[in-house]
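# step 3/5: fold
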Amino acid sequence: MNYVSHFEATRVRCDLVAPNEPDEESAKLIERTGGQVFVVRHRNSDPLGYIQQLSLIVSERREQIVHAHGNSATLAFEMIAAKLGGAKIRIPHSHNTTCKMKLADQALRGMFRHNYTDAMACGEAAGQWLFEDKPFTVLHNAIPVEHFHFDGNKRAFTRGEYGIERDTFAVCHVGTFNVQKNQRFLIEAFALLQKNKPDSALLLVGEGDLEPACRQQAKALGIESRVRFLGPLQDVSAALSACDVFALPSLHEGLPLTLVEAQCAGLPCVASTFVTREAELTDLVSFCGIEKAETFAEALESVQAVDREKASDEAIEKVRAAGYDVTNNAETLVKWYEALIREAKA
């Protein structure tokens, strides 16, 4: 949706097909481009019905391009539907380096390869995972970089809002509560950190199926009062400004946007060794194994304080130069679409 917000002044009409109702802001962005929102459910439980519904939308809306996002060869569903609906340009976009549906992924690889026309990925590792030896274009996940600049006022306000003292060492994590993001490991590591730094706090931003289990774990470890479950914040930048270190102990990642945002905030980051090195855009990032919670706790504790204003300024410059600014990338994407359409008509 970051990209769609920059499509308004272009000739792109963007329709959105999603498995559930999008938020009001996203729906309005789509409508501003002249597009429509379509909710098509039961993708995995009824793939044939899903393909039929999606192909009708592609046909009736006369879509020239279908650009589908995912992390497995089940994107064959979207590519087949797009082909049946008459879309000349069919783009699967890889966003991770593995997937949950491994059996389905393997079974559909051949069908997947024969039904897309062009390939895209958020990074080299994600592209190699899904497209293997086939060519693909990298378009980095992008953000409005200046929005995530460190803000001292946001830091003070957010700390006050969540009862965090000025000198408290605060750890931040942003992500859906699921197995991949590994929050239970982080809570275990934070409990160990607490023993050496009792005046510390853990801020968990997001929601998901494993949130109740994480709350229970924090309570069982006796650190319930030191862990803040903030939910899906509208302004994540405030939490990033409020904290002293960002933790990302993921089991796998394509190219985590949250790590890019944290760097823009001038925030030292500790990521698992399973996070792609492509996300290391500045010297604010260090990597740590997640075999032992003790090791990760030590890595968090050893983070050195930085001049946040200066670190944020330098990081934003590097992030923009590396191709992660949404304004520049949206223009690149539109030009790519236009070039593909010209080729298809030639």
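# step 4/5: annotate
Residues 326-345 form the longest helix (20 residues).
# step 5/5: archive (pending)
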